Amino acid sequence: MIKVGIIGGTGYTGVELMRLLAQHPHARVEVITSRSEAGTAVAELFPNLRGLVDLKFSKPAVDSYQDCDLVFFATPNTTAMTQAKELLAAGIRLIDLAADFRIKHVPTWEEWYGATHACPQLVAEAVYGLPELNREAIRGARLVANPGCYPTSVILALIPLLVNRLIEPESIIADCKSGTSGAGRNASIGTGFCEVTESVKAYAVSGHRHLPEIKAILQTLDADADLVFTPHLMPMIRGIHATVYANARNSAGPVQRLYEDYYRSEPFVDVMPAGAHPETRSVRGSNVCRMAVHYLEAADKYVVLSVEDNLVKGAAGQAIQNMNLMFGLDETAGLGAVGMMP
Amino acid sequence: MIKVGIIGGTGYTGVELMRLLAQHPHARVEVITSRSEAGTAVAELFPNLRGLVDLKFSKPAVDSYQDCDLVFFATPNTTAMTQAKELLAAGIRLIDLAADFRIKHVPTWEEWYGATHACPQLVAEAVYGLPELNREAIRGARLVANPGCYPTSVILALIPLLVNRLIEPESIIADCKSGTSGAGRNASIGTGFCEVTESVKAYAVSGHRHLPEIKAILQTLDADADLVFTPHLMPMIRGIHATVYANARNSAGPVQRLYEDYYRSEPFVDVMPAGAHPETRSVRGSNVCRMAVHYLEAADKYVVLSVEDNLVKGAAGQAIQNMNLMFGLDETAGLGAVGMMP
Amino acid sequence: MIKVGIIGGTGYTGVELMRLLAQHPHARVEVITSRSEAGTAVAELFPNLRGLVDLKFSKPAVDSYQDCDLVFFATPNTTAMTQAKELLAAGIRLIDLAADFRIKHVPTWEEWYGATHACPQLVAEAVYGLPELNREAIRGARLVANPGCYPTSVILALIPLLVNRLIEPESIIADCKSGTSGAGRNASIGTGFCEVTESVKAYAVSGHRHLPEIKAILQTLDADADLVFTPHLMPMIRGIHATVYANARNSAGPVQRLYEDYYRSEPFVDVMPAGAHPETRSVRGSNVCRMAVHYLEAADKYVVLSVEDNLVKGAAGQAIQNMNLMFGLDETAGLGAVGMMP
Amino acid sequence: MIKVGIIGGTGYTGVELMRLLAQHPHARVEVITSRSEAGTAVAELFPNLRGLVDLKFSKPAVDSYQDCDLVFFATPNTTAMTQAKELLAAGIRLIDLAADFRIKHVPTWEEWYGATHACPQLVAEAVYGLPELNREAIRGARLVANPGCYPTSVILALIPLLVNRLIEPESIIADCKSGTSGAGRNASIGTGFCEVTESVKAYAVSGHRHLPEIKAILQTLDADADLVFTPHLMPMIRGIHATVYANARNSAGPVQRLYEDYYRSEPFVDVMPAGAHPETRSVRGSNVCRMAVHYLEAADKYVVLSVEDNLVKGAAGQAIQNMNLMFGLDETAGLGAVGMMP
């Protein structure tokens, strides 16, 4: 049984880790910390866990985790980078669900996150935890940078096109629609029910932090890759729908078969039949990224539609998938939940 | 043209006053204050008002209102009571959309609102601004206490039964369902989109501040009136649905005709045909309280279903209806908007 | 491995049975029928099941089920009663998720369902499948009548009060709020998104088919039990919130401890601490019925708040719980999913 | 007072016409027809109109409209084309809210709408009712083709760029998000609450009927214009958010001032300040199209964000704006409603 710690467990990725790990056959949460809720029973804050989780939130303290095999950081950005070194030194493996170790080029990270990186020496070591790209490296990693929610959906949509050089790499547009849980569990007017429901808006059109992350990973596939990325806030809790456009190179034509073949053995990527349109609800609560690829002949463009649950494949589920790889377990352990329709 | 001031204009009742007054033929907002947003253009905070409202929020200061004929308090509870005296002395008439002057029995008010009343001498003078009960008194009032959202829907549902002594006055149960805008425009986790949507809950079952308000008004109709009041939070922005139960007295039987007659001349109360079920959306954005009354013969009980838009008839619309009465205007001026379906 | 058949699998209870059974360790769906979708892959209609379910819908035909140990009827009312006899004769055990066998008094059933009962002789044999009441009888049953969604939430809320004679049995009011999935997966204007969202309404105030079902079961606990039952349609997919009122008998006082004791060993009933307010979302996707019981001293009334997922504990989950009992399995097998928050 | 008829008044554009015209100072609905609801009171089907509209739906018959000055077709596609000739001959002016007269090239229309055009000779005469493009022609028109909802938002977003030759005309991508009311008031599973809420999907990626309409109008501005158009279904009632991408020509740079100037005198187009992000809710119930234009320097692309209420500026409101022009009224008459926030 893997002994797990969660740092910063009061947010949506924290409770989602708890929900998924409550059913994991080989892992057990030993400690969960929160500065603000120390002493509160986890199941008091999240009553869906009543009867399943007896833990209380404890104050964050390095020695809390000493018996853990693995610690998840479900903290805001810039927290993990201050604690990672010490925990690694204690022999604990780490998965950061925030952004501290996702971008290899530290000055870029510092520009977008408005902070000096506290631990640049670990950035190079960290493995970007997208199993479909980095499965082998994840198995051996001490420190995994769990991908952002938008990047997961956009990158998975593009891998087969980029690795096969089928698109003009600078023509990519990713128009993304995200449920509000992506904004976290915070007291803010802007994410209030009455502000979000029955409305749609774009935000951060001039630049969102997930843009350099996506770009950097795409450039590992094609050095010329670049994109326009437009996030939109949706009146729903969970789900990301990425609509990704790119110009075909040399009129490459339909790629249905190529996508099916590329992802055939991936347990958590589902390529739908030609002409399909995935719905975010089909993956609600599940770790699947479901996609459909369209080739528009008149425009000679590809449109890839890719959906995921931003809290599962876009966060906690992918983190557990990475944990499974790191500890030699079946990659799908604890991740069998079926998308909830309706 | 009536010159209007709004104190505390950044909440949902504030913006709703602005929306409705922007179309009022005989009133004009001269000043709107906000401590936190002083200097910000109103239309920047509320872009629905772009092109219609040129005002900026100004710092609250008594002399701001000196040219006003009327001031609306769209402030939190316990604000109006500290400023009412001075404004009245300056000859300005007042409508408080909060609770400071709703309950005549000051110790009861102090118990439920957890504060010492700053201005008990004005409580007696204040008129409870439910036109269907107090139309004449409102016309002459200097100070109107605008009713709470729940009380409006529950009291209107019960008046014909109580004044005709048709129910056991202590048997009333008001099971109420409110949209989330009733909780105001605040930064809080509990009213966040992801917390509210796709869920329903009761709250304050052991006692809500609108209980003593409802009880006190009902007792002016029947001294023995008492009730159980259970508010529930609904995953919608606007709307209150009151489901009000009471035991018939002496098997009084159907009262459809009685309700129709009682409210026939009321411009903002609509009694539906026998057997109907009103929907909150039918009054979205309108000042109408729509109701249907059912008599259950087997149980010898009445069930009255009453719906309103909590921000209009339950707050800003009713306040303007009161203003119209106070200034001798057509009671319906500026309140002609039709409910928005769908 | 129990071999399962599902008749009428294209509705919401059908897909929910598929979702839950896809993860059941000891049951396997062998056949699923649909008149309208015969030949279509189940996963084409319900893409959440892609990669998990290879079945196609087949035409309903009695010999389809000959290898099944158990058949679920996920059909509209009045279907199961025409096929039950033949299937039982073939040695197949049955769980009807519709209403054909829920009401023992056949004339009452016929009045409310507007049909002549095709199989009255089996009504007496059928066991009402509420494990918390009838666990032993369910174990031995050939034919289980799975309870309605509203009845499950209301009855569970009242059992401890009624069996302990703590309430006036004719004073019960059940004000219930249901998500729209309770109306089924049908093409109708009334359940359209634009008709339902951002609105609340009561319906069937003069009488709903679940009323005689609830009443009949309550009367097995207290022969004088009677109630007013008011269903309301909520703008959410899943969840029922029952707010149940009853007058205390002899000022019986608080019953927190009594509820906790009564349900302590029930795997799927959770009594919250005193003063709590359950949210429907806390049981979304889970088989738990969660409740809180309030005693209002001033009114000498009880208010019980009870929430469930209408598609799980209110339908498919409870059906699987019954299956587990009928086949001697762990009662909780396949039902471990945690409520999805957010 | 203009005498108005509405043909096919039971859909969402029909009720929206009724809602808006109920407050119009110079127009009055004399007759409203419906094949399915003939004899039903309009206010019974749409209770928001109770007390305001006394009309009943009548059977469609040509002589019903003989006293009308204007008839709106709020019918499905292919209805208006069969009746237009006769009504025009009777001296009645027409506005078709469906698509029969929007596309000048009849074979294109016939290909996309799968029907033979019943009245091609009127297609040439019909004026495309986008006042911002065709104001003068609309004033004199007998027959106005009211634009589609998506086309209105996309075309208005692009006019200043196209007429000033600032973009590569074949590079346009319009990624559009529409509320569900755009699908009409129909009994269908796909638009059911439980199918739509808490989910997002693209549809008709390979080609939507609004594509040829948009393309044809854009080509009147730049003959080389072409686009990819991707509609998405949103879990909200009202609102379209168009996110329109285009490559700058010759690195044309920022165009904020150009947009502001271009639309300065338009009563129903609002250009937000640089850097803004419009929300669909800011125009809920109003006739405004609100937009913000971003220039992405790194990508040398424009991103125009444009929002409207699909039932108002995208349908019934724009139709009334056209009526106002046709009859020499103030263009804004009856269209003063402020967007409803929250």
What does this entry look like structurally?
4 copies of one chain form a homotetramer. Chain A is of the alpha/beta class and 342 residues long. The first copy, chain A, folds into 2 domains: 2-125, 3-Layer(aba) Sandwich (Rossmann fold); 149-311, Dihydrodipicolinate Reductase, domain 2 (2-Layer Sandwich), CATH 3.30.360.10. The first copy, chain A, is 29% helix and 21% strand. Chain A has helices at 12-21, 42-45, 80-89, 106-113, 120-123, 131-140, 149-163, 193-196, 210-221, 256-263, 312-326, and strands spanning 2-7, 27-33, 57-58, 70-73, 93-96, 127-128, 143-145, 172-178, 201-202, 227-233, 240-247, 269-271, 289-296, 301-308. In chain A, helix 1 packs across helix 11 and helix 6 (131-140) packs parallel to helix 11. The longest helix of chain A has 15 residues, at 149-163. The two termini of chain A are 34 Å apart. The model of chain A has no long low-confidence stretch (mean pLDDT 97). At the A-D interface, strand 8, strand 9, strand 10, strand 11 and strand 14 of A face strand 8, strand 9, strand 10, strand 11 and strand 14 of D.
